[in-house]
Each structure stands twice: as C-alpha cells, then as structure tokens.
Amino acid sequence: MSFIKKFVEESTLSRRKFLLNSAMGFGGVAAAAALGPMGVAVASTKPTLAWGYRTPDNPYWNSIVSGGESFARSVGQDLTHLIHGGNNEKILADVKALLSKTGGNLALAVDANDSPNARSIVEACADKGGFVSTIWNKTDDLHPWDYGDNYVCHISWSDYQPAQDTARLLLEAIGGKGGIVGIGGIASNVPAIERKAGLMKVLEEYPDVELLDWQAADWSTSKANTVMSTMLTRFGDEIKGVFSSNDSMTLGIIEALRAEGLAGEIPIVSYDGTADVVKLVMAGEVLCTVSTNPYWAGGIALSLAYHAAVGSFKPSDEPHAHREFLGPAIMITQQDAQAWYDNQIAQTPEYDWKDYWKYSSGQMTYDKV
Fold first, then answer.
1. DSSP labels for 252-318?
2. Tens-place pLDDT, residues 256-312
C-alpha cells in the first residue's frame, strides 16, 4: 500500500461517526464538561476561538483556516479570524485586543509571521491567561514548557529532507546537468530557510548543475511572476529547471512560463499540495508538490488550544514530544496526484480532532541546516 493511500484511509472517519458527533453539537470531552459531574448541567466557560494567519486569499492559509473552522463547528462555536497580512505589529496588536476583550478567555492558534514575533504573542497570552498554539515560525529558544500550560504547543514541519527529495527529483529530470533557478519565501521564515538549505545540500551531489540565481518572492504569486519573468529575460534557455518554495509562487512562475510558451517544457518542483498545483502535477506542468496537510494542522492546532483551555488535558503533564512536534510531509507526484486530489481535495477530509498526535512525525529537533 502506498503511503498516500494509507494516509488517506487512516485520515477519513466514517460518515456516521461524524454525523453523530455533529448532532451532539460538542466534541465528546467538551459535552461532558458542559454537563459537569454526574450529568448535571453547569455554566459554560467556553473560550473564544481564534486563528491568526496571513491571508484567506492564499490557498494554503485558506486550507489552514478551513481546518480551524471545522474544529470550531465540532464544538458548536464560531471562529474569530485575525488576518495580519504578513504584518508583525498587526497580529500582535490584534491578539492583545482580543485578550483584552475576552478577559483572557481565549484559545488561539497562530502563525506569528516572523520567528521572533512568536515570543511577544506567547507572552501576551500567558500574561492574560489565554491558551495559544503556534505553527511554523518561532525562535529555537522559545519552548511551550517554559510557559506552563498557556503555551500549549508548537507545530512545524521538517522541510529539509522533503526539500532534498524534491530537489533531487528536479535535478534528475534535467539529466543531472545544466542551469536551474530558485525562488524562495520570506527570508526569515523557517520553511524558507529549510527549503533552500535542502536544495543547496542536493546541489553538492550534482557538480554539473549550476544554480543560476536564487531570489526571494515572499510567498507571493505576483512577486514570483515578476521574478521569474526577469530570470527568463536574463538567462533565457540556460534555465533547465525551477525550484519553487511554495505553490502560491509556483502559480506566478507558471504564468511567466506560459507567456513565453515554456509551460510544461521547463520542469518545476513545488511545496504545499494546494488544489491548483496538484492539478498542474496531474497535467504534467509541475513535477511534484509536497503537502503538509494544512487542513489537519489548522484544526488540530486550535483543538489543542481549546482543550487545554477547557481542561480536557493538561499540557504540562505531556512529554516534550507532544508540545513541539512535526506534522506530516507527503510528496505528491503525477503517479499519486489523482488519488490525492480525489480523497483530500475534491471531498472534505474528516478528522477526529481529539486524536491530537495521530499524524505527528515526531518531536522537533534543532539541527542546524
């Protein structure tokens, strides 16, 4: 059984179980808490639920927050959206304002945008008694266990090895020789750093491949389009392949190639597993993309913060591997793309939001790349 097939099967709950849970209006633990001991009803102390993220227009972040909304519905609540647009000051100000409004009765999942910004957000939540889960970006010296229960967890992904896998696929596709270009994300972002490092590591194995240029396009479709157009003008047919650090930028890269009649002629590897790029993999215009299952991540990060807030579990009783952990990273090639699209995109996947660490691939480590 392929890893993708196994993952799809394990990640899908029965429709009957899902409908029964929905009919209750609560997750099982939350329902029990609402009833209190011996089934006696008590006043609800449900926290406000919020997700802080870059933009709903980006397919990756749209999938993240869709997972958050799915979890919120499972406990009969609405989700507050804190959209920061890549602005460190805005997300911190919005979190502080919501903590003030709710008196600290907040369960928050958030991407801090830049790694150093995570500390300020965590400390604001801890100071007011809120509960926060972070994803992707934090500094190496910031740890949930240093903040008791309020900093619930940090979820990230090990991009270094998957980036090596995609880079090797790209370099093999061009016959192990010639020039390639790379387009990266925000330079200070953990995934941007690791994905570039993975490419650079693999380039050491291919002395006949030259990295003609690397430019940051800040995860932006429009900026990637401009960068790719400039590279095509500068290097022309010297470009034999493109390493793209995420799917949003790949869409801009593809448009630049189409404008020159080169789409499908120059192989591209990508990252994020979004619907549009999975379709491009199916069509042969992109070699592969890597899914970090953002829908699951969006729901599970918020679920952990919520259940810590309502007392379903005590984060400080958990091992470090449950507080800083890696999510799944799944390479999708043309061979797998149709199955992935049918099972993870065309239909909404269903997850048990209380099975917190089912898809964890282990505790985070801090090996320098």
1. HHHHHHHHTT-TTTS-EE--B--HHHHHHHHHTSSSEEEE--HHHHHHHHHHHHHHHHTTSS-GGGS
2. 999 999 999 999 999 999 999 999 999 999 999 999 999 999 999 999 999 999 999
Domain ranges (residues) in the chain: 3-157+294-328, 160-291
Give the separation between CA 158 and CA 138, rounded to whole angstroms: 14
pLDDT in tens, 203-254: 999 999 999 999 999 999 999 999 999 999 999 999 999 999 999 999 999 9
The secondary structure element, H or E, covering residue 319 is: none
CATH topology (fold) of 160-291: Rossmann fold (3.40.50)
CATH architecture of 3-157+294-328: 3-Layer(aba) Sandwich (3.40)
Ramachandran region of residue 26, left (φ > 0), alpha (ψ -120 to 50) or beta? beta
Give the residue ranges of DSSP H helices in 140-189: 160-173
pLDDT digits 0-9 by tens, 1-23: 343 444 444 444 333 333 233 33
Structure tokens at 144: 């949930």
Strand pairing of 324-326 and 209-216? unpaired
Q: Residues for the chain: how many in total?
A: 369
